[in-house]
Amino acid sequence: MDIPGLPARRAALTMLDAVLRRGETLDQCAGAASRRVRSAADKALALAIASEVLRWKVDLDGLIDSATKRNLPDDAKARMVLAIMLAQWLRFDTPPHAVIATGLPLLAGGPRRLAHGVFSALTKRAVSLPDAPTLPEPVAARWGERGKAIRAALANPPPLDLTLRDAGETDDWAARLGGVSLMPGHIRLARGSAVETLDGFADGAWWVQDIAASLPARMLGAGQGRRVLDLCAAPGGKTLQLAAAGWDVTALDISGRRMERLGQNLARTGLDAEMIVANALEWQPDAPFDAILLDAPCTATGTCRRHPDVLHRIGPRQIEEMAALQAALLDRALGWLTPQGRLVYAVCSLEREEGEDQIARLGVTALPVAQDCLPAPVAPSPQGWLRTDPAMLAEHGGMDGFLIACLPSPASAGAG
Predict the structure, then answer these.
(1) Structural domains of the chain, count
(2) Rounded to whole angstroms, how far apart are CA atoms 203 and 4?
(3) In this structure, are 361 and 237 located in the same domain?
(4) Is 285 helix (H, G, I), strand (E, B) or coil?
(5) Quick one: 217 and 326 in the same domain?
(6) What are the Cα distances from residue 102, in Å, to 20, 30, 40, 89, 314?
(7) What is the model's pTM?
(8) What are the catalytic residues?
(9) pLDDT value at position 192?
């Protein structure tokens, strides 16, 4: 019989191996890793442990190395188990005896005595973690000075953001849900809220969407029945926004499974959109669109608050591959606009190659962003595009990192 709590720790160890050794995302590996974990609470615990290890890995490794005569190999199982043990003690306040009871069995047939000795030495020294996680060296080098500010935003998982179907009901929903609003149509709740049980979920009054992720669709304004293409649409938050704003929406995505989720959200909210499952690099529209929203596939490093695995999975190769795909999508989609049309390009990445460099490559002047569609004090750059990062709105819990630009149709007088 398993020790109580041990299956969750085994699942966390499996997730960490999948992320750090095979480059999988936590979202990809969590289901399979947790298949032998019975309760939803334990599955959530396994994911939380793995996330905190990834969030604080550089600092946890430093503590482990400080208690060993010879550093353990980076991929040693004992190092990962010790990181799991330390994360529980230092981040979840789990008593050391409980940490040992569920940690050492993970090293059956391995160096349990070593792990016990290292953990005991660190607890006796009453070690602690810094106020903010240390970034892995390659990430710190890429992000430069702004990385120092971003560190503080990584210390804790983010709160829960909701986008309302009707922005006119913002004050009412803030009161009903006990949340705060940072702009019309937005509600922020404390993390840990069980989404499906919240008032308004079943009625489709809102959907979960980070405040930064809601900005690209806001930039297009009211649709007034005009045609818009939501390219790479799933799981559909932006499609819902556009439909609620009165656009005639065509939502396209390559993933049939993810589009099923969009269909469910449309049904729940009572909103409407035409859904097409196709490869955007092969598909061709029958007629041009008044607007296009291209939330392009990217490395997603801007979501590091909620997905700390990106700190360890993403490197130059992944950035280069994503930048090439983004360029191909941008070049193709710009040709689908009416002469007076607009394309909003967005990536939830903090890498210049996926953001600023993509706009510079086109040689166009970005259309101005209206300040009233942004939360204060977030503002567009002098070049016209918007760059957000996790350090913004820090006093309220931060926001995801995005690059967003509104671009004119190549056929318009303002292009080129």
Answers:
(1) 3
(2) 38
(3) yes
(4) coil
(5) yes
(6) 22, 19, 18, 12, 31
(7) 0.94
(8) 348
(9) 81
Residues 326 and 190 reside in one and the same domain: no
Domain that holds residue 350: 211-408
Query: Tens digits of per-residue pLDDT, 282-314?
Result: 999 999 999 999 999 999 999 999 999 999 999
86 neighbors 50 (Cβ within 8 angstroms): no
Specify the CATH number for the domain of residue 404. Answer: 3.40.50.150
- In angstroms, the CA 386 to CA 234 distance is 22
Structure token digits, residue 85: 């043990």
The CATH number given to whatever domain includes residue 19 is: 1.10.940.10
For residues 140 and 134, give the distance between their C-alpha atoms in angstroms, rounded to a whole number: 9
**E strands along 232-286, which residues?**
248-253, 274-277
Residue 318: φ, ψ to 5°: -65, -40
Q: Please give the distance of CA 40 from its chain centroid, rounded to a whole number.
A: 22
Are the C-beta atoms of 79 and 72 separated by less than 8 Å?
yes
Q: Are residues 368 and 219 in the same domain?
A: yes
Q: Are 247 and 223 contacting, i.e. CB atoms less than 8 angstroms apart?
A: yes
The two tokens of residue 135 are 């970034």
Whether 244 and 119 map to the same domain: the answer is no
Counted residue by residue, the chain has a size of 416
81 with 190, same domain: the answer is no
pLDDT in tens, 64-73: 999 999 999 9
Residue entry with tokens 């090439």: 324
Residue 415 has pLDDT above 90, yes or no: no
Going by DSSP bridges, is the β-strand pair 337-347/402-408 parallel, antiparallel, or unpaired? antiparallel
